[in-house]
Amino acid sequence: xxxxxxxxxxxxxxxxxxxxxxxxxxxxxxxxxxxxxxxxxxxxxxxxxxxxxxxxxxxxxxxxxxxxxxxxxxxxxxxxxxxxxxxxxxxxxxxxxxxxxxxxxxxxxxxxxxxxxxxxxxxxxxxxxxxxxxxxxxxxxxxxxxxxxxxxxxxxxxxxxxxxxxxxxxxxxxxxxxxxxxxxxxxxxxxxxxxxxxxxxxxxxxxxxxxxxxxxxxxxxxxxxxxxxxxxxxxxxxxxxxxxxxxxxxxxxxxxxxxxxxxxxxxxxxxxxxxxxxxxxxxxxxxxxxxxxxxxxxxxxxxxxxxxxxxxxxxxxxxxxxxxxxxxxxxxxxxxxxxxxxxxxxxxxxxxxxxxxxx
Length: 359
Ligand code: XIL
Fold this sequence. Notes:
By secondary structure, this protein is of the alpha/beta class.
């Protein structure tokens, strides 16, 4: 057995053997977590087609969520099937669900390097500014005053800044240089001055050198944007946690503190646990995943109260994780707070320590 599996197995077994998940009991809750539990909204990324076809899924979202965000629908791939077309079907259906259930809806995402339709490859450097600003003006304009919070630019930092440079390559960076980020935020702010504008990215929470470099690159970018008075209001921490990797609690807390020191709020936008390298046993796996979530949220909430904490999906029945992180043993991934039958797992108990999930 690989040493890592042995260690994780022992960690999980130890946790599972404590019976009532005592490690996760409120008794161990930090003061900030207790405070946050009364204030911080909980939300989830939603697949609107399943919301309409699966009553148990819709019931679970209604039972636990104060916020929703479209897992798809507002990405260029869904929204812009053709250069002259904006297809608002999915976001319109999701915002109608949110309005009918007293929830708020986040907008994800206006500018990303991925999920771009084929025709965007035809955008020339001289057309890029118009295509970027026009897209934002039409989309944000449609939901002005109704979507209060946007992931304006998603994942601008490169996977490995030490090897690739600070900023991730994209058609926008190639055509407009790093100024595409400022342009996107200024256009969104001009279109809906009342919206909270968020820069969203991932992989800041491990003890690895890559995570450390990514924290540095993100802080440098945020400082530059702040120095130029770019209208950016928050950093979105995606929170796709690697199940077998411990959380760098000190490094993450220090990072969040520095970001907040720039006057920026914090969102946890896409929390889940990628469990393909965790032990097979369900109880052990769920305990380790819940522990990672608790360490992650403790590191953040001990320093700053997030404006919201959202998971990227709510049930293991509907998750993106197996697209990239299928388990070699063929078992279902269990990345989310509800299992495939919408039953709460230890992770939901942890989320209820830090948010209003289920209230
Ligand atoms: C993912 C969706 O979950 C998938 O269904 C889709 O095929 C690809 O995009 N970070 C992000 C999200 O910001 O937009 C991604 O969502 C997951 C990684």
